[in-house]
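Workshop exercise sheet. Pairs work together: one partner reads the sequence aloud, the other fills in the structure field after running the prediction. Swap roles for the next sheet.
Pair: D.N. / O.F.
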Amino acid sequence: MGNVTMISGTLARSVHHDLELLTNFGDTAVLLPLSLVFFIWLLATHRAGTGLIWLAIVFACNFIISALKLYFLSCPVGDMLRSPSGHTGFGILVYGSIILALAKAVRRRWLRHVVVALGAGLVAVIAMSRLILGNHSPIEIVIGAVIGGGFLAVFAALYKPGAGRPRHVFVLAAVTLLVVLIFHGEQVKAEGFLRALGTELGLKGEACRYHQ
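Structure field:
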C-alpha cells in the first residue's frame, strides 16, 4: 500500500511538473519578448502601418484583460470569476498572429495545415493546463479566449502578407523558437500587483456594489 501511495504521489508530481512546463509557454515573460520580435519582423517585412496596427491590438488586448483582472480581483463573482486568463487571451493573440504570418507565407497546403494545427494545439494545451492546474475556472478561460480570439480575428482581417523573400518567414520561425527557449520558465507575477492596485484605488467597495 505504501509503495502504491508513493508511486501515485510521484506520478502526480510528474504530471504537475509537465503541466507547469506547458502553462509557462503562455506566461507574459515569454509572450512580451515574442510580441517585440513579431513587431520588429512586421516593421522589417511589411508596411510600417501593419506593425503599428498589431502593436495597437496588443495594447488593447492587454488593457482589457488587465482591466478585467483588476476589477474581478478586487470584487470577485464567487469562486468562478476572479481573474480572466491572461495566459489564454494573450497567448492566443501572440501565437495566433505568428502562426497566421507563417501559414500565409507557406505555399504548400499540407504544410500550412500542419503549422495551423501546431499553433492551435499549443494555445489549446496552454488553456487546458491553466484549468487543470486550478489557476483558472472554465469561465475565466473562456473570457480570455474570447478576448484574445477577438483581437486575433481583427488582426487576421487586416493582415496582408508582405512582399519580402521567403527566407524572412524562416527567420521569424527561428527567432520565435529561440526566444521561447530563452524565456520559457521565467514568470511575471502580475496578479499580486493588480490586487494591490485595486486596494490602493479603493475599488473593492465601489466595484462590488454593481453585482451584489
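Discussion prompt: The CA atoms of residues 100 and 164 lie 16 Å apart. What would you look at next?
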